[in-house]
Write a structure and sequence with these properties.
mainly alpha
């Protein structure tokens, strides 16, 4: 099965579910229209105010056809998204809670409801699509996969609850037991949603599925728990007091979502600040244009291949962007900014100078530590520092080389794994470059296989000036 097969399967499942639900709803009519409208408005509002996904070129990445690929999936994006993404696993918690609470709604103000799975999916899909129209018009981020996620999550919850509820399977459940039942269904939905999101991100970016799923699961106790609790409470409250419960119980999550929006804006501004600092060496003529961005992008791809979690990828991104900032303290610039071939003592001096600068920027002690230790022997380095050193050396060695440059640079790095470069990082770099340059095929075991897999790297990952 290719990496695109899960994506096609998920999109097809969501499309079939939405189309079938629409047809069934049109044939049977919309039950309890005020209730459906109220929940639809809640979901649409949640989608309208979710933060924009970071897509395509930004201060830390360039277009994939020139230097290095960027993630097109917002989990955050995914992402995120972005690369490291925004760090917000559920960017529209109010919309998610509204969709899930409607899927768990069995009564309205003490009266039983009669809507089923088809109506739940139809209302949620229409509301999510309506709330995404402004985003589509502005081109702010991927909408299709977000709709897939929302439809599958609402459909899963409705299938687990609505048929059994209307058949009387939950008649004996009341009080705390019924509330725990709803929470259990929502937790199961959130866990399944994490698998779907990780699969979508894997297909969109090519990053390993395991680390992506791990990052999603780590986020479940955070915003995921708030979505579960709010969804269950709103369903229980509407069952007792009616639709007046929706604005009351949605306010806390609405405020949380607005806070997440501000947090995303702060993160974007901070990333732009780091990127601007990284360009100081380029503007001053110490390093070639785009060098720091290339190292950051390729370093993150290597970090993903090695399974680094999201937090470490963020540290890696910032450290890679500012890894050469110590050169600003030099009286005589290093020719072409190539520090990989300098004596070890000089490399460490520049690294320590860079770490001192980073500590004054407020980028954080972890970022500064990576910059300071990028020239240490690799057994003593943190993983992020090992990656920065290997990727920086590769980018410097391949920069002015001819058609065989990528292969030659990799061979030089392999020969240096005895003390300078971490073998596991060099191996991960080879896998990333092989997958990128060889059309998704890893290099073969022989020299011919390696050359075939790496022949197009100059067009895939490296730009000349």
């Amino acid at each position: 099965m290719t990496s695109r097969s899960p994506l096609l399967a998920l999109r097809s499942a969501a499309a079939l579910l939405a189309a079938g639900s629409l047809l069934a709803t049109l044939a049977g009519g919309l039950d309890a229209r005020p209730t459906a409208l109220a929940f639809g408005v809640l979901v649409a509002v949640g989608e309208l105010i979710r933060p924009g996904a970071r897509l395509g070129p930004d201060p830390t990445t360039a277009h994939p056809t020139t230097a290095y690929p960027t993630a097109s999936h917002g989990t955050a994006s995914h992402g995120t998204q972005g690369t490291t993404g925004s760090g917000l696993r559920e960017a529209a918690p109010l919309g998610a809670a509204g969709a899930l609470s409607y899927a768990l709604l069995g009564e309205h103000a003490g009266q039983p409801t009669h809507h089923g799975v088809a109506q739940v999916v139809c209302v949620v899909a229409a509301a999510a699509l309506l709330g995404s129209v402004p985003r589509l018009a502005r081109g702010q981020g991927p909408v299709l996969d977000h709709l897939v996620r929302r439809i599958l999550a609402a459909g899963f919850t409705a299938v687990c609850f609505q048929p059994l509820y209307h058949r009387g399977f939950f008649d004996g459940w009341s009080g705390p037991a019924y509330a725990l039942l709803l929470l259990a269904l929502l937790v199961l939905t959130v866990l399944c949603d994490a698998v779907v999101v990780a699969a979508l991100a894997h297909c969109a970016t090519g990053w390993p599925f395991g680390p992506l799923l791990r990052d999603e699961l780590r986020a479940v106790p955070g915003i995921g728990s708030a979505v579960c609790a709010t969804g269950a409470v709103m369903a229980l409250a509407v069952a007792v007091v009616g639709l007046w419960a929706l604005p009351v119980f949605s306010v806390p999550l609405l405020l949380t979502q607005l806070s997440l929006r501000r947090y995303a804006a702060v993160r974007a501004t901070y990333r732009q600040t780091i990127a601007s600092l990284a360009r100081a060496t380029e503007i001053a003529g110490y390093t070639p244009a785009g060098h720091a961005r290339r190292v950051a992008a390729l370093g993150q791809a290597v970090g993903r291949d090695l399974g680094l979690p999201e937090a470490e990828l963020t540290v890696l991104e910032y450290a890679a962007l500012m890894h050469d900032i110590g050169q600003l303290s030099l009286v005589d610039p290093v020719p072409a900014g190539a520090t990989a071939d300098l004596p070890a003592a000089e490399q460490r001096r520049i690294a320590l100078l860079g770490g001192a600068v980073v500590r004054r920027t407020g980028a954080g002690p972890q970022v500064a530590a990576v910059v300071e230790r990028q020239a240490d022997p690799y057994p003593e380095q943190p993983v992020a520092a090992r990656i920065v050193r290997v990727v920086n050396a590769y980018e410097e060695k391949v920069r002015d080389a001819g058609p065989g440059g990528p292969l030659t640079a990799l061979e030089e790095l392999r020969l240096g794994t005895g003390g300078a470069y971490a073998p596991e990082v060099v191996a991960a770099l080879a896998r990333v470059l092989g997958n990128r340059g060889g059309g998704g095929q890893r290099p073969g075991p022989g020299a011919g296989g390696r050359r075939a897999g790496l022949s197009d790297l100059g067009r895939g990952w490296v730009t000349h000036g």
